[in-house]
Amino acid sequence: MSGAGDLRYARTPVSHLSSKWTSAPERLTQALSTKLGKVRFLRRLSYTLHGYLFFLHIVLFAVCYHHLEEGLTIPLSGDGNFDNLTSTVITVSGTVFATLYGALLIWLTQRLALRRLLTSEQTLTAMHDEFKSWIGIGSALLALFGQSRIKSALPWVLCIAGYLVNVTVLHITMPAMFSLQVGNLYHPDNITTQMAYPDVYSMLHTWPTDARDASTLLHALFSDASSLLPYVLLLDPDKTVGLAKGTIYDQLVTNTLSDTTALVNATTFDVSCGTLDSLEVDDTYPKSAPMWYSVSHVYPNGTRQEDIRVKYIQPNNAMALTWHNITSDDIRPGANRSFYLYGTFDIEDSAGDVLSNFSLPEPNGHPPNISMIGCDLYSHNHTIQVDTTTRVAKLDQVPALRESSLWSVWEPQDPVAPDDLAILDLWITAVMKQYQTSFTLGGTGVYRLGFMEKFVASYLGLQLPGWSATHVPRGRVKLHHVENALSELAAAYFWSLNQVNTDNQYGIERTSNIAIGRPEAVRRLHLNRTPVVFGLGASTLLMFMNLLLVRPRETRAIGAIDVLDTLGLLQIVWFVRGRPDALSTVGRVQRPNELDLRHAGMFVVPPDVRTAPAVGIRPDIRCPPNVWDPNPGGSERIVSLASTVSSSTTLVNEQLQTNDVDDGKLHKSAPSNWETFDDGYVYFSPPDDCKGSSSC
Fold first, then answer.
1. Residue 689: pLDDT above 80?
2. Which of helix, strand or coil describes residue 343?
3. Which residue, 5, 160, 327, 574, shows the most beta carbons closer than 10 Å to its own?
4. What is the pLDDT of residue 335?
5. Phi/psi zone of residue 442: left (φ > 0), alpha (ψ -120 to 50 degrees), beta?
């Protein structure tokens, strides 16, 4: 082709200038442009980006479910502006990511969907409605509303509208996912505790066999502990440090100004009571004016237990604690976890069965009727969470008391081995050494109500005679209430041992160090679950709708030319260049409103196919006026095979035909004076008299 060395082209294919590019950025740009021009690459890229978005939300949901993000912390600064800036940066980052990523998804999906649309046999109205839906959410909703009048492409318009709505949802959810919350970061530390279980080893293993030889100091310990019982009843059971219902636990020596908990050791006491079979009075002491009785009963195995001392009780609602072998001075522990409770009140179980009264002989006057039961004291060790600020146990971790009990025959516990002796084995010693009130049990007034019995009577709400009422009615209580009262009595008494041990004067204090977390105020990253869930739903829908929108349609025309990916004004003019029927049909609409135009466009418009005749300009024909702009110096011109010049169409069609298409690039055969390229364009030199002339 003459003059080809100095050709200036109106459009030059990029692929044929790669030899002139030497820099790496230019080669990279060329490769990227080539890739972005391939439909298959764009479709795979679209699938990948939507799949990545879905996978990202799956990961975020897993992180949110396990609260893994809370491991990222930012120390609190004294500058409030910096803290506010950090929160703002997180929100803005989410907004920017959602905007850019959403724009990329829409660009890819829209481009591929329109390519798909323009290569399929569709009505002109369907093409109009689908393209209109891509303009924006408002336009998509209007197009969807228009389907109620003319259903041209309802599924696809609905899919496009749903796609844009879900992208908008992501614009809302992504910035709202992350936030900074003020919290604590805990650092390991130790704190000293006073153990609830005092050092009673010497009492259990070196205790004298004769109570009269016991240390006066230890006698004072047990007496002093009982003196606190009336005050324990006045304490708030939910705010007493070291004591909660029937449980005692280690006390923190000092509190900390931290909202955290510490795991400490605890001991819970429990009492179980039952009936006594074949209860009998064996003797009375003294005979003339009884002060106490010796009674016995039979165990379930048939053994009779004797030598149980029962005091003479006259007033209603009075009571006393006792144990077997009362006449012996041997108070060595090992068989002191079982005891008896008796008094002038009635006891019924949860089924409403009232315990039968036991009458004590009285030579002068009315014999007293008492209720007498046998009880066993148990304990179990465990741990409990304590608030390091209030030093009080978490109430939800405190074992509950009994809520019901039924009568059963009582049987005492077996003696424990010496190595298994525990604080429970000091129970009877505590009963013996307790302080007594001024309330007499009757008779000669020798026996008085002890502080421990007064604790139980007050707990059960039993009214005792006094200055205001010299006679009170006989009370009735539930069996499980009695058991709970005795359980809390044991806990309160052993808790009091540490309280009266001021400056460790009794040598029973035990301490230990436990691990706690010292808090540091920080700003903790928090992943909000609600935006993550909505974002996961939106990304899932986007992935499936993208698959529907970009995959090839079943109505795709065989051999359709895939060159358009948008429908701007120029693309529309090009698309209808050889379709006078479409122009005439739509052009006949007298009032070009939306509805009438959509009615007129309800006819199928086939796409351009590869076997269609190419259209161009033959070089031996003079250019019609105003087609070519003057180009000083003269140069060859480029005419797209798709361009149309109405006066030259027939002549050019005779000389130029489309032979084949490979990967969207047209390969043409042209006369010898045409120069062809594989990008779909033909270059030629206009006649000499056209160069530099305003007439060409």
1. no
2. strand
3. 160
4. 60
5. left
Q: Check residue 467 and give its pLDDT.
A: 63
**Burial of residue 143 (number of CB atoms within 10 Å: 0-12, 13-18, 19+):** buried
Domain range annotation of the chain = 37-181+524-563, 195-505
Find out whether 680 and 666 touch, Cβ atoms under 8 Å: yes
| 346 beta partners | 476
> Of 276, 343, 332, which is closest to residue 304 (Cα–Cα)?
276
Quote the pLDDT of residue 556: 64
Tokens 């605890």, residue located: 266
3-state DSSP call for residue 238?
A: coil
Give the DSSP letter string of 547-584.
Answer: HHHHSPPTTBPTTB--------HHHHHHHTTT-HHHHH
Upper half-sphere CA count for residue 439 (Cβ side, 13 Å):
22
Distance of CA 258 to the CA centre of its chain: 24
| Beta carbons of 608 and 556 less than 8 angstroms apart | no
C-alpha distances (whole Å) from 175 to each of 61, 85, 90, 94, 166 are 15, 15, 8, 4, 15
Which 3-state string (H, E, C) describes 17-75?
CHHHCCCHHHHHHHHHHHHHCCHHHHHHHHHHHHHHHHHHHHHHHHHHHHCHHHHCEEE
For the stretch 247-290, pLDDT in tens is 999 999 887 766 778 899 999 999 999 999 999 999 888 876 67
Amino acid identity, position 437 = T
pLDDT higher than threshold 50 for residue 186: yes
Residue 517 is encoded by which pair of tokens?
A: 């977390």
Asked whether 404 and 484 are in contact (CB, 8 A), the reply is no
DSSP 275: B
- The reported pTM is 0.59
Vertex 175, ends 172 and 180: CA angle to 5°?
Answer: 140
Torsions phi, psi for 306 (to 5 deg): -110, 180
Kindly state the tokens that stand for 82.
């910096």
Helices and strands per DSSP (H, E), number in the chain? 17, 25
In this structure, the dihedral spanned by the alpha carbons of residues 441, 443, 447 and 451, taken in order and rounded to 10 degrees, is: 10
User: CA–CA separation, 27 vs 325, rounded Å?
Assistant: 107
Higher pLDDT, 306 or 613: 306
296 SS3 class:
strand
Amino acid type, 421: L
* DSSP calls for 83-116: HHHHHHHHHHHHHHHHHHHHHHHHHHHHHHHHHH
Give tens-digit pLDDT for 550-584.
Answer: 887 666 666 566 667 777 777 777 777 777 777 77
What are the tens digits of pLDDT across the range 437-479? Answer: 989 887 666 789 999 999 999 999 999 887 666 788 999 999 9
